[in-house]
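#structure-requests
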Amino acid sequence: MMRSILAYLMHVFIISSVMCCLSACKERSTSNETNTTTITAGEDVLNEVFDPQEHPLVFRRTTLIVRDLKKSLALYRDALGMVVIYDKILKRPHPTKDGEQDIRLVFLKAVDEYYGVLGLMEYQYGEADKLIEPVRKQGFAVQNSIMLFNTNALDEKFPIIERTPGVEIYKPPTLREYPSYDGKGTIRVKVSIFYDPDGFLVEFNEPLDPIKTN
């Protein structure tokens, strides 16, 4: 009698263990399916095509007219770390150069390929050595522009910027504090400023505090 009871209990235990294992496997499978779905959804969002017609205003790009694209790329691509997404030779009518002139146009991205893009245009492509106009470096003067980049590696990249041909340092990395957007605190930023090879002012900054705009 005792043996029958023990055999029955053992039978029940085995069945319970098997059921628990099956249940756990099913939960893992469901969890994995959920994770896969989430990742796929995220990838779909990242791969979504940007439609400018859905927005009343999009600030896409700033294009600089430069003397020598090789020098500009040495700064913006090689030193700062931007990525070239477009590089083409364009043709335009010209009255004295066999009827047309070459223009080289390059687009670089920092984060996104549609907005916040930097354009570099060598309007007289291949003639940098013939240009005689001096590079104007007028600092914070009326009609001048300032391009601002944020980085999380200022100390690493600034020495590379300093060594880039044509770059002139206006202000080395310096700690500054700005009023926060809500006016209740401050935002600490390590700020550096320099002229690029064509005299455009560039700020290359590292925020030290989270920047909340609302």
